[in-house]
Amino acid sequence: MRYELKNVRILDPVRRVDQVGSLFLEDGRMAAALSGEPDQAMDCAGLVAAPGLVDMHVHLRDPGQTHKEDLFTACKAAAAGGVTSLLAMPNTAPPMDSPELVRDLLARAREADATVYTAACVTRGMKGQELTDFAALKAAGAIALSDDGKPVGRSSCLLEALERAKELGLALTAHCEDLDLASGGLMNQGEVSRRLGLKGVPRAAEDCGVAREIAAAASLGARVHICHVSTRGSVALIREAKARGVAVTAETCPHYLLLTDQAMESMDADFRMNPPLGDEADRQALLEGLANGPRPPYAGGKGGLHHRAQRLHRYGDLPGRRADCPNGAAGPWPNHGENERQPSADSEHSRRKPGAGGAGRCGALRPGPEVDRGSGQAPRQKQKYPL
């Protein structure tokens, strides 16, 4: 089949292309030109065609929690939102701490609707005490290390992990949280939590964790990636560290850019998450950091849902949830109001690939590669889970 997408805005950060024109697809691949008349020509005026998005933070719940989600349903949902490559977090059951588990996941992922990369655990059983065999995990296919869901327990263990990861060229992605400060908290500590009579989590719970990870990485000249940044304090710490040459990168998530803790006044547990939604000052600091600072990637923070006790956030119906731009297809780019940041050919986070060097099908719109196709399905109806 031959397709022509006419009058589409073509954005390719790898080739630094930003222009309106036509894209050609033939037999499932990008083409410089068609060998004959198109079987279907589509007017895509007002739409954007861009490389498939890379979600750096996805919880597949596979193995061990497939009643909530599995590898294939997660990748189908990712493709529907224009995400064609993703990095799986290792807090599965059992945790992804052995080469056998890594190989099994990646082998099954060959049949999924998105390209799957995986992180493996920093510590055995994610207990924060004993390091896993990083070299064996890398040989099995892991491209990153994380104990996401909780921080590495012992700081001495964190230092050793950063040093070994540096030697092997692996990225360490850090869940930054002071568990003592966060203990028992239900939402961000502030005016709204006091008004609702709910125990809050102070911003310092995240900020202290970010400061520890940055200090550890700086002391070794190692690199560290900070997961799901949500506070203005963390933004300031990361900016300052980058200014003095620390190899720190970070990600944030759509819900921290779109919502604040005022959403909790609805007493709807869909708005309860970890880290919790901050206040308007946090949201503005994150938007400003994305617009003007060293540009971090977005991460969906996607995790499968089961029952109301899970109290995880489903944000599929939020405006601007993701750009529906799978590689080789066109979709709308959401408007974020006065702080709107249009996609551009300079969007560094759009052209990065997971891991040290990247691989797979993510990256550019150019003739030759097989097209990554998103299904473009509408999100499911939101369910309300009361607190």
Folded structure, characterized:
This protein is an alpha/beta fold. It is built from eleven helices and 16 strands. It has an eight-stranded parallel sheet with strand order 14-13-10-9-8-7-6-15. Strands 1, 2, 3, 4, 5 and 16 form a six-stranded mixed sheet that branches. Helix 8 (232-243) links the parallel strand 13 (223-226) and strand 14 (247-250). The longest helix has 17 residues, at 204-220. It starts with a strand and ends in a 36-residue tail after the last helix.
Quick gist of this model?
This protein has helices at residues 71-80, 99-109, 134-140, 155-168, 179-182, 191-196, 204-220, 232-243, 254-258, 280-292, 348-351, and strands at 2-12, 17-26, 29-31, 40-43, 48-49, 53-59, 83-88, 115-120, 144-145, 171-174, 187-188, 200-201, 223-226, 247-250, 302-303, 330-331.
